[in-house]
Amino acid sequence: MLAKNLKWRKQLSGKVIIANTTGLCFGVERALEIVLNLAKQGKKVATLGPLAHNSFINSELSQKNVKIISCVSELKKNTVLVVRAHGISKNIMEEIKNLGIEYEDATCPFVAKIHRVVSSVPKGCVILIAGNKFHPEVVGILGHCKNEGIVFKNYEELKKLTAKMDTNLEAMAVAQTTFCLNEWLRCTDLLKEKFKRIKFVNTVCAETQKRQSETEQISKISDVMLVIGDPGSSNTLKLKNIGSKYCKTYLVESARQIRSGQITRKKIGLTTGTSTPDNIIEEVLRRMSEILNNESEDEEIASSQNGEDEQSFSEMLEESLKELNTSKHVRATVEKITPNEVYVNIGRKQTGFIPISELSSDPSVKPEDVVRVGDELDLLVLKVNDQEGMVMLSKRRMEQSKGFKEMAKAFENKTPLKGIVTEIVKGGLIVPLEGVRVFVPNSQATTSKDDVLEDLLQKEITFRIIEVDRAKNKVVGSVKSILNDERKKLQEKFWETAEIGKKYKGTVKTLKEYGAFVDVGGIDGMLHISEISWTRISHPSDVFKVGDEIEVYIKNLNPETKKISLGYKKDEDNPWEKIRNNYEVGDVIDVKIVGFTDFGAFARVKEGVDGLIHISQIADYRVEIPQDVLEIGQVVKVAIREIDFENKRLSLSIKEVKDEDKLSG
Ligand code: SF4
Questions:
Q1: Residue 173: strand pairing partners
Q2: Domains defined along the chain, listed by start
């Protein structure tokens, strides 16, 4: 967050001096973007060590289910490993590659530069590293040294070390990126005296240098200095040490730690570590605003009585924040594409880059799917870092701005739009279109709640825009609106020609206990369970499954209520009709015993038709109970004694068959 606004600084002068360089540094912000982007794509993510020395960032990541692991062996299956800005040793990187682990290297480019320097020294060259040998960045650097690396933490330690060294050797000195610049300069002076052949690469990161020198300048003219950051952050502690040399300096992690006694009626300086996110800084400023406004209430009353119309601290803060959001457009040419960024030429001395999250509204696309080297792009400027010569740009937001206009037009004209579903999110679908993420709520995605949303993933859908809210960055689409229109047309056509007895080819839509709903062309008709089969079924699924194409006919219809009932089973399949056509009294047939009662046994004549063999007709002798003579599943010869079509009854006899046998015998 930059407090460059002159008016803002003028108004604050005498109360709060905010360093120009605050908030997340380039390296940490870049690493955070990479992790958040992966999490957004629904990937399981783990970082090798905490991503930032900041508990707020780490707890936010933990809420997004990003895990922190301390070594590669702790990595769970199907998890993308992110190497944080601190970097890692060459060996660990090789281990990751050899194991075929999916990974993203978020090593800060400034740290990677140190890796290149220490890995390309001549043979025998002494590598001296200014820094904390236990800090992960230094551990990583040591793991890239071509020759053995020697770490020293300050001037005093270096002095003792060099006293025992062969200073005739060739040497190379680098520093941890967050090393204190003044200390580095003292050390290089000493090394120049000791070594005849020594090369220095000042690898103290420019971001760190700037923060340290601003802290020194501000603390010299302040009564109290606030350093916002995590006590575990090396660069934050250095800023505190620098501030402490000149004034009372407090290290605060969040607004909650600020006490009115720390800042009241004093000239306050403020800076932050490189892992302190903007929202924490904003909270701290608000808290300071509350305290300072309370303290100066009496003065404000006096001022307003004198006709002065001063802006409140909060108003000035708001104004400052608004200024940061002001964006400009640039036309740029794509120069280089990496997995996480696209570098562009913006025709100025700064390098422009588009983080992958700012490339497209579809988080699943790869940079090379979106742009090619040489492409000319219209881009929105998000952030300018003069210090690093970097300009952060967005293609996505530029397109989004144009896209919103298109969406508003489509909304007004009710134009049907087509797009591919790229995400299923809680509550609906996402369809990226014209740089805008169109949200289609579940209730608007299909016409039936039984439809499965996942089936639409990566499929093209046609929808209509039903809401555009530029302020909330919200565009809502509806597939249902289109389907309802199509359905309405089909329904009108259906009712023009519908009549009882008319046959239709229909699709089974849903199955219920009491029957099936069948789409007969834009309208769902009810097929009662009793109309499905001539035989007894316990559920429509005994005969159909959803999606079956079947032939039905209209049994009844009501154009008023727009309800139709359907028939499916056919007369020619009625088993009693088959009995009528194929059997007559006296016929001898084979039947299967299917059940018993006290007065006889039931025998299956045909599927759907069972006849009764009365107990007196089972044998030519007295039978106590049918089971004494017959058993379930047994096939017996019977003679048809009587057919009652009206009451659907059939009377059978085993005894008569035996009599006949006797006669014929
Ligand atoms: S402090 Fe500098 S070197 Fe370290 S991560 Fe931030 S930008 Fe990179």
A1: 128, 200
A2: 25-108 (3.40.50.11270), 109-204 (3.40.1010.20), 207-324 (3.40.1010.20), 329-394 (2.40.50.140), 399-483 (2.40.50.140), 498-569 (2.40.50.140), 582-664 (2.40.50.140)
